[in-house]
Design goal:
The protein has 70 residues and is mainly α. The protein has one domain. It is built from 3 helices and no strands. Helix 1 packs across helix 2. It is elongated and about 65 Å long. The model has no long low-confidence stretch (mean pLDDT 80).
């Protein structure tokens, strides 16, 4: 009986993790889309960001997009 309860809890936890992963990836996609829109409206900002990327001093929120492996 105990094992069955634990299995059920583990299954629920997997569902929760899956949902939060999907939510996170949806939020990241929305951030990317918002950023892409901002940059298409403001190409100078895009050039500034690329220069910042080359200089290695990128703001935290952009760091995730340019360097996702971190």
């Amino acid at each position: 009986a105990c094992a069955a309860v634990l299995n059920e809890l583990a299954a629920e936890q997997n569902l929760v993790n899956e949902c939060s992963d999907q939510t996170r990836s949806k939020q990241l996609t929305e951030q990317d889309n918002n950023l892409a829109y901002d940059l298409s409206e403001n190409p100078e900002k895009f050039i500034e960001m690329l220069e910042a990327e080359l200089d290695g001093d990128l703001p935290e929120e952009l760091e995730d997009i340019f360097n996702p492996e971190k």
